[in-house]
Write a structure and sequence with these properties.
The protein is an alpha/beta fold. It is 48% helix and 12% strand. Strands 1, 4, 5, 6, 7, 8, 9 and 10 form an eight-stranded mixed beta sheet that branches. A three-stranded antiparallel beta sheet has the order 3-2-11.
């Protein structure tokens, strides 16, 4: 009997391996020649931008379902709120959005909106926000039918998660589908675990690795952007860098091929050079991507890099895609939660797991704070330099060096803070701060996150300043998320 049982166990194990052992991860295909005017990149999306004077960016942070719901609340507000201009023309605020960057949980909302547009508001709550995504992932991990696949080389827990995301949210869509639809540019980011640098899913970056982004499933980008280290496995992509006769864009060359690049752009230069390093496909044939929050939990680094590049090229009297911009509006949608601890009340120190989680999160939280403050500092710097440049004293000064030093972009920056810390209601602020970073939340928590996003935008001093400066007024403010009116 024991022998029969043993043989049966071996047979079951063998069947499991046969069922899943042949699993292979999706392979991003190579290209033999780059096409700078094609593919999913900012340059090809400029044709969708009707208003060249106003660049509106939404930056969605990480934070699991908490982040996805909070960022969804921002989209709901912008969709349901109209403004009317001096001439009486009406438009939705959402139609003014040009770029949405998303990290980790925020990348799901960003990518889904890029794919579905207004159709997202029909069933996103049921398909994702109010679904036990975390429980479904765990169930698949524990299912014997997936064990063989999980043991296969190059196929890990994140690939299993990507399959799930594809089934209930993305329906097989790729970046090629995003290329064919209108709407804002969606920038989903992950982290290259080997270097710690940000990896952005755009064709410009995929040109460096000589691969076709258009064939990459959106579910894999979402899986990479939310692949929490240790909990989920890295998402691996093939690097064919150096095989497609790539020529860097003209605006990139001054920053990566010069010993004296345009300044100030230290952070942008570092990011661009990290991207260029992907071109070594011989020594780096594979890239392993993890949660984008490791390198940029706010989705703000790309925004800051772009502003640095914009300013540096402007001061060097070189053309940029943003030369016509008069306003750069950034909604910083930050779902960072800071639940209090009582560790300092006890002589016994916190346990190793608590220390590990805190030590991993503290640097991320610190950079999130610095990113917001850096954007505000840049806004103030540009504003002050323009005042000096346009003063009567400077108009009379003919010194070319002084004129060059004051060659500052004409765009006004508006940094609209949408974060729990800005909530006036202390009870609600404390409630949201206690919400965990996971991919499952009670329906009530989802609705309160959505409502909080709308409240924060309406109360934002920067948002009010923007409306005043543009000369428009709100004509329809959305009802609170979860109310009967909001469901209509």
């Amino acid at each position: 009997m024991v022998n029969i049982t043993h043989r049966f166990s071996l047979l079951v194990a063998a069947l499991i391996v046969l069922l899943g052992g042949c699993a292979t991860r999706p392979i991003n295909p190579p290209i033999t020649q780059t096409e700078p005017t094609a593919g999913y990149r900012f340059e090809t999306r400029q044709g969708n931008i009707k208003d060249k004077e106003n660049i509106v960016v939404l930056a969605f942070s990480g934070g699991g379902t908490r982040a996805a719901a909070f960022s969804y609340g921002v989209l709901e507000f912008l969709r349901k709120t109209e403004v009317v201009g001096p001439t009486g023309n009406k438009r939705r605020l959402l139609d003014s959005v040009n770029i949405i960057s998303g990290v980790s949980g925020g990348s799901f909302t960003a990518l889904a909106y890029g794919l579905y547009g207004d159709k997202l508001f029909v069933d996103y709550e049921q398909r994702f926000l109010k679904r036990d995504v975390q429980g479904e992932i765990v169930a698949r991990f524990l299912s014997p039918t997936n064990w063989g696949a999980l043991w296969a080389t190059g196929w890990g827990r994140s690939e299993l998660a990507a399959q799930l995301y594809d089934e209930f949210l993305f329906n097989g869509a790729t970046f090629g589908d995003l290329t064919r639809v209108g709407g804002p540019m969606i920038l989903a980011s992950a982290t290259d675990i080997s270097t710690g640098s940000r990896f952005q899913f755009t064709q410009r970056v995929f040109d460096v690795i000589c691969s076709d982004l258009g064939a990459v499933p959106l579910s894999r980008a979402a899986a990479a952007s939310s692949a929490v280290p240790v909990v989920l496995s890295p998402v691996t992509i093939n690097n064919y860098g150096g095989t497609c006769n790539r020529v860097p864009p003209a605006w990139v060359k001054p920053f990566v091929a010069s010993d004296d690049p345009p300044r100030p752009a230290a952070r942008a230069i570092r990011s661009l050079r990290a991207e260029e390093a992907y071109g070594d496909g011989v020594n780096r044939p594979f890239l392993h991507l993890v949660d984008g929050g490791v390198s940029d939990n706010l989705g703000m680094r790309g925004v800051l890099d772009a502003l640095e590049i914009f300013q540096a090229l402007h001061e060097a009297d070189m053309p940029t895609p943003l030369d016509q911009a008069r306003r750069i509006v950034v909604f910083i949608v930050n779902s960072l939660s800071t639940p209090p601890t009582n560790w300092d009340e006890s002589e016994t120190p916190p346990g190793p797991v608590q220390v590990l989680l805190k030590s991993a999160g503290t640097p991320i939280d610190a950079f999130s704070f610095e990113a917001v403050e850096l954007l505000r500092d840049t806004a103030k710097q540009w504003q002050t330099a323009r005042l000096i440049r346009d003063s009567a004293a400077m108009a009379a000064n003919k010194d070319p060096a002084v004129a060059a030093a004051l060659r500052i972009p004409n765009a006004e920056i508006y940094a609209i803070d949408v974060s729990f810390a800005a909530l006036k209601d202390q009870t609600e602020r404390e409630y949201l701060n206690q919400l965990p970073t996971s991919f499952v939340l009670p329906a009530e928590s989802v609705d309160r996150l959505r409502a909080a996003a709308a409240t924060l935008i309406v109360d934002s001093p920067e948002f009010k300043r923007l409306l005043n400066d543009v000369g428009v007024r709100l004509i329809a403010e959305p009802p609170a998320a979860g109310s009967p009116a909001a469901a209509q």
